[in-house]
Design a protein that fits this description.
By secondary structure, this protein is mostly helical. The chain contains 3 helices and no strands.
Length: about 90
């Protein structure tokens, strides 16, 4: 446990950030699942629209340093590639 006032404050801040990051990460995962769900259902148009929304969420999550920038780029690349493949 924290022994100093500054350590106690740090613990409070960390807890708040952890909860916020969990929410952001969950939102990102949900957006990704929507794209993959549309692809699995064979809905190329729906997947395209879901991809556009997912890319925005992924970028926002990476900007906040919830996920690493390279992880975000890799995820966007794979989703875009899958949607492009489904269009053919």
């Amino acid at each position: 446990m924290a022994n100093t006032k500054s350590a106690e404050k740090r613990m409070r801040q960390s807890a708040e950030r952890r909860e916020r990051n969990r929410g952001d990460r969950s939102t990102m995962r949900t957006a990704i699942k929507k794209v993959r769900g549309a692809l699995a259902g064979g809905d190329a148009q729906g997947a395209q629209e879901a991809l556009k929304a997912a890319v925005q969420v992924i970028d926002r999550t990476a900007k906040k340093h919830v996920v690493h920038g390279n992880t975000a780029a890799r995820t966007k690349s794979r989703l875009t590639k899958a949607v492009a493949q489904a269009k053919k």
